[in-house]
Design goal:
Elements: E1 16-20, E2 25-26, E3 31-34, E4 40-42, E5 51-56, E6 60-61, E7 71-75, E8 79-84, E9 98-101, E10 106-108, E11 119-128, E12 134-139
Parallel strand pairs: 8-10
Antiparallel strand pairs: 1-7, 2-6, 3-4, 3-5, 5-7, 8-12, 9-10, 9-11, 11-12
């Protein structure tokens, strides 16, 4: 039945969302996924059934806790500078290409060497990562669930 009066949806801006964590450590700046059980974990190509949810806004250590004991805040929109994976030398021609996650902070455009191919976003600029290594600015809008 359709609404016949106003309905409060309790809107909350979805820019930053808190996710319950598995028994792992997630560092600020890490690409974060949720596993098959629905808990936040660092993105990694060698872990099956992950869904990318965004980039960690903080560092949280739940490695000694049980799954769900702690939560991490994750930014779901915007652009972030991630490190170019070994073997990926970003070039101007890569602007607009999709990147795939190798680890929770390394990305590449090629599918080679990846057990699972998790798309994290689109390259919008070539930049240096905070570690001084080659990086790319990745826009994650429409890639995080």
């Amino acid at each position: 039945m359709a609404l016949s009066k106003a309905f409060e949806t309790y809107e909350r801006p979805g820019l930053v969302v808190s996710y319950r964590m598995s028994n792992v450590r997630i560092f600020k700046g890490a690409a974060v996924g949720v596993n098959a059980a629905g808990f936040a974990v660092p993105m990694a190509h060698d872990v099956a059934n992950l869904r990318f949810v965004g980039v960690a806004s903080e560092s949280v250590d739940n490695s000694a806790g049980s799954a769900g004991a702690r939560s991490v805040n994750v930014t779901k929109t915007g652009s972030f500078v991630l490190k170019a994976a070994t073997g990926f030398t970003p070039a101007q021609a890569d602007i607009g290409k999709e990147v795939l996650g190798l680890t929770d902070w390394e990305v590449q455009v090629a599918t080679g060497g990846l057990t699972n191919q998790y798309k994290l976003g689109t390259i919008v600029a070539l930049e240096t990562a905070s570690t001084g290594q080659a990086g790319v600015r990745v826009r994650i809008d429409n890639y995080s669930v």
